[in-house]
Amino acid sequence: MTRVSGDGDGADGDAETDSDRMPVLLVRGDREFLVEPGDEMGTDLGVLEVPEDVQSGDTVETHLDEEFQVRRLRGPDLFHHFERTGAPMVPRDIGLVIGETGIAGGDRVLDAGTGTGVLAAMMARAGAEVVTYERDADFADVARENMALGGVSDAVDVRTGDVTEQIEDLESSSFDVMTLDTGDAATMVAHAPDLLVDGGFVAVYSPFIESTREVVEAAHEVGLSNVTTRETIQREMQFDDRGSRPSTAPVGHTGYLTIGRNE
Question: Which of 92, 79, 101, 133 is nearest to 258 (CA)?
């Protein structure tokens, strides 16, 4: 029988909310299982029966008395548990986008190149309302499912189509931030003054220097200010009995991030 202990983080007697029905993580060491309340899951450590009223902070035991800790999904978990339709932007780069543009509650964001949707979901969790475009209809369907998993369906409008064909309709929307992860990002940057509020930001993520150069040139041509491009790279540190040094694993390059501001 499954046993649950712990106070959880919900109040007794409260009406059921959307968050009560959200999937949770069951964690034991380096193992993580994403499950929904009320589900049953077989593992090599026994069968897990997850109560309907399970809460973050609880302990769930298998029928073999093996314990798993219950956690609620947080932003970085979305990167690992969203269904993938390609390589999503990694959390550290998402942090740079949010930090450099100041995305916060009340902001409206135009996003292009939804893909898996991790960036869109993280911006929504920061408080923004996001309109995101994905050309591939199947990818867009997966992104919508991921938004539901991340609890941000109400804040993220996943649209199927080519955003460059919608520029005229979008010009009246006045977005605070525009985030682009597409091969033709320079085309959208050329229209940034018509799409962004005064002082609004554009953030372009690209895996290639050539397309990054096109973005920078387009940004300067339309008069964006504070145009800056950085390579996004990190090195993990190793600590052992011999000493401390950067990891000899492959260099953690992911791409190039260009930021510009509408004046």
Answer: 101
Residue 38 is predicted with a pLDDT of 86
Closest residue by Cα to residue 207 from 178, 188, 181, 235: 181
Residues of the chain with pLDDT under 50: 1-19
pTM: 0.83
Q: What whole-number distance in Å separates Cα of residue 70 and Cα of residue 60?
A: 7
Q: Please give the domain boundaries of the chain with CATH numbers for all domains.
A: 4-72 (3.10.330.20), 77-261 (3.40.50.150)
Written as six digits, the tokens of 170 are 């979008």
196 CB burial (10 A radius; 0-12, 13-18, 19+): buried
Tokens for 25, please give them: 């993580």
Contacts of 177 (CB under 8 A, 6+ apart): 101, 103, 107, 108, 109, 110, 123, 128, 196, 200, 201, 202, 203
- How long, in residues, is the chain? 263
- Distance, in Å, from the CA atom of 197 to the CA atom of 84, rounded to the nearest integer, reads 32
